[in-house]
Structures are given as structure tokens and as C-alpha cells.
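User: New here, any thoughts?
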Amino acid sequence: MAISYPKRTEKKNKNREQLVDAADRLFATKGYQHTTLNDVAELAGLHVQTLYKHFKNKEELASASALTAIGHLREHFDAASDEQSTFDVWRAFIIDSLAGLLPMGIGEHKREQLRAASSLMNDNFLLIVYSGYEDVLTEHLAVDFQMDPKTNHLPRLAASILWAGNEMALKRCAGLDTGEDLLNDAEAIVKESVAVIDDIEKTFASYIR
């Protein structure tokens, strides 16, 4: 049975969801360091004072947004069929995520971040997201490989390569290795991202039981 909340509580919950979603989109397309709380409030269609009623600072908002992003990955696995491998679900998740983010465009600050050797340093949002992704992927790869991650490192190794591969695909589209900036080409980003997953799947395919 659905839980019925008072209208005031419903509005409060909706405002929080809008803020978390806006933060997720801005951190991913503009970069954590260059996203302000005013930016988040504006995209959410709310006043910044409303944001402060839910989150005391950007770090707290980043944590909440990151946990929501990790929750979305879990939802993809929960909705997947038994026939789908972890690689199948991850591929569909990345395609779905890019479809939601790319229409906003990749900002110049995010471009600079992707081109930097220390692209994940000082990015509280991505550090939490990727750590969470790794845990979820490890859990499901352990089932695919029929291995206990307590005694075998391969599930977590493959998991870490998958999330790092997603970052690598964006770096390549930002011009690293290729010298060609494709971050304005949504189709190219999706193609590169899927190709990376395909390559990783081929590497670990023999372990799937």
C-alpha cells in the first residue's frame, strides 16, 4: 500500500528530489568544483534558501546526490532479467544515463577536468559515485563469475575497470589520446562508451558461468 504523506511533507520531499536530481546533472556535466548551490537551486526551479533547508553545504548535497545515483544503478539490476549479465545491465545503465545527461551539454569546466591527469581529485561527487558503482558491480559480477569476492579479487577488479572505463570513454571524447574533442557529439560519446564496455566484456567473458 502506498504511503500517504501530508501535502506539506510531499512538497518538501519533492523539493529535495528536485535538488538532488539537479545536483546530479550539474556535477556530471559542469563538474563538482564549478557547480554552485545557486546553480543547483536555479536548475531545480527553487530558491537557494530552500536548498539550505535540506542541505547545509555542497558536500552534504553531493553525498545525497551520489547515493541517489548509486541507487539508480541498483534499480537497473533489480529490473534486469536473470538472462542479463552484469555487462548487459551496466551497458543499458550507461546508455540510459547518457541519454539523460547529454542534452544538457558538457560544460567547459568539465572538459578541463576530463583532460586533467587529476580529473577525480577534489570531486566529492564522483568519488562517492564510483566507489558505490564498484560495490554494486562487484556484488553482481561475483554472481556471474561464481566467485567469492572475499577470496578472489577478479569480481572487484572487473568492477573497477568498468567504472574507470566509463571515465576513460569521456576522457577520449574530450580529446585525450585522440586529440579530437567529441564532447558535443552525443552519438560519438555513446558509441565510445559502449565500445569500452564491449572490450571489457570480451576480456572477462570466459569467467561468466
Notes: The CA atoms of residues 134 and 159 lie 5 Å apart. The two ends are 38 Å apart (CA to CA).
